[in-house]
Write a structure and sequence with these properties.
alpha+beta; five-stranded mixed β-sheet
Length: 240
């Protein structure tokens, strides 16, 4: 009888079940560490630094946000701990101006390190008055709804035409008090619209009338002289 030699059967394809178990274990460990991290306390100072870094990256390089109105929505989402870049603010306000007929006669321009929002003309101020109907209130609120999200210092300058106030029954006895009243009216409406920092209001009377020397039409020149300029500074408004 031939005895076949005893041979040991070997499995050429070893089992990989252990890898499945290991993968499950690693997944559980990962879930555990994620849970522990989510329960940990946020370092406030590091989070603040991250917010400042991200906030300072805002730029005005995209026209699409202006055309679609997304910039205005983004302003509400940005928690900006420092004064916002006035070029970006100008970009947003011009986009808002293009969308709202109420802002059609509002001039928005930069002067050195300031952004000037000028409310000039008969639509806003008539001779001897600190406001014209309710239109200026609506206009200032539209502007204020954007400025409420910034921390820049805001100043308001009231102006008049050079004609003296001679009526004995006039509410304001001189151009200076009239210009102060115009500035205060706009400043109060900005506060009512949500701008939370102190606002400086100045009465300039007709001291800047010579800046309109290039305007040849007298009626237009006098209308432009009766104005209020909202001036947004580069500096922050905290601690004014």
């Amino acid at each position: 009888m031939n005895l076949l030699p005893l041979t040991r059967k070997t499995n050429s394809n070893p089992s990989t079940m252990w890898m499945t178990s290991l993968a499950d274990l690693l997944a559980l460990l990962l879930a555990f560490f994620v849970l522990m991290f989510s329960m940990s306390e946020i370092k406030v100072d590091r989070w603040q630094t991250l917010k400042e870094t991200l906030g300072n990256k805002i730029s005005d390089t995209t026209d699409l946000v202006t055309k679609t109105g997304e910039a205005e929505k983004n302003m509400a989402m940005v928690s900006e701990p420092k004064a916002i870049d006035i070029a970006y603010l100008e970009h947003i306000l011009n986009g808002k101006k293009n969308q709202s007929p109420l802002l059609a006669n509002v001039e928005i321009f930069r002067a050195e390190e300031k952004l000037v929002i000028s409310l000039a003309g008969e639509d806003f101020f008539q001779p001897g008055t600190d406001k014209e109907s309710g239109k200026i209130v609506e206009v200032v609120h539209l502007i204020g709804n954007t400025l409420r999200y910034i921390r820049n210092r805001v100043e308001v300058y009231g102006h008049t035409d050079p004609d003296p106030i001679t009526s004995p029954t006039a509410k304001y006895k001189n151009n200076w008090s009239l210009s102060v009243a115009r500035a205060v009216t706009v400043a109060n409406e900005l506060k009512n619209s949500g701008y939370s920092y102190p606002i400086r209001a100045f009465g300039m009377a007709d001291s800047r009338f010579n800046e309109l020397a290039n305007v040849t039409d007298k009626k237009q020149k006098y209308a432009l002289a009766r104005r209020v300029d909202i001036v947004v500074q580069e500096a922050a408004g905290r601690g004014q």
